[in-house]
């Protein structure tokens, strides 16, 4: 193959990448590309977020955030947060809980009523199911992982988080990830996954497919609250969790409790 052919191939690839970027940013009227069609119908391409640009943007939003070096320091930095419209109606800010050096991190979308009352993530019915997945399914203690949400305050009536609320709170989530630096993250539900990966692909298309978040393996899956409404999909979440366990080198318990 001659140099001119290589140059043409490079130019075509560059144009295709640029069109895909415009499409992902919401430009209307663009036909579906091969890669976009594939992402909507099968395993989406790996999403890569640039760590340097994200960190710079986050630190500029909240000066001093970059100086926090532990989860306790970050919690102190957040303080009695009044940075968005959720603050006046919350009972407790729900920060995060678990092993600060965990290999595995679970990220949900927002606290519910039980979490707001206790100030701890995933303690209601959905939280009990998550605990079962961790302890009975994976065979480890809930205290061995780290659990948090994108939003640290409960939205009224458990409504979906709004974009300005996500924007106000996500710097703290990303700093939590920076400080824990897990080997793998499980994103629980549509809003958590879309907030972290900055995509609009439905969770039904993303789940079960590894993504990349700033060099950390990221597994999207359904939220436990969804499983309470649709228990038939528990098998899909268990399949996703098994992929995480394989990546982390954990034994997969067989039926009856023995490990494979």
What's a concise summary of this model?
This protein is of the alpha/beta class and 260 residues long. It is built from 11 helices and 6 strands.
List the SSEs and their pairings.
Layout: H1 3-24, H2 34-41, H3 51-61, H4 71-78, E1 96-98, E2 104-108, H5 113-118, H6 125-137, E3 146-149, H7 163-180, E4 184-188, H8 190-197, H9 203-206, E5 211-213, E6 216-221, H10 224-229, H11 234-248
Q: Top keywords for this entry?
A:
single chain; 260 residues; alpha/beta; 6-stranded mixed beta sheet; 11 helices; 6 strands
Structural features, described:
This protein is α/β, with parallel strands linked by helices and 260 residues long. It is 46% helix and 10% strand. The protein has helices at residues 3-24, 34-41, 51-61, 71-78, 113-118, 125-137, 163-180, 190-197, 203-206, 224-229, 234-248; strands at 96-98, 104-108, 146-149, 184-188, 211-213, 216-221. The chain has a 6-stranded mixed β-sheet, with helices on both faces. It is globular. It starts with a helix and ends in a 12-residue tail after the last helix.
- Sheet with the most strands, sense and barrel status: 6 strands, mixed
H-E order: HHHHEEHHEHEHHEEHH
List the total number of helices: 11
Q: Give start-end ranges of low-pLDDT stretches.
A: 1-42
Q: What is the CA–CA distance across the termini? A: 50 Å
What class, by secondary structure content? alpha/beta
Radius of gyration: 20 Å
- Helix coverage percent: 40-55%
Shape by Cα distribution: globular
- Give the mean pLDDT: 83
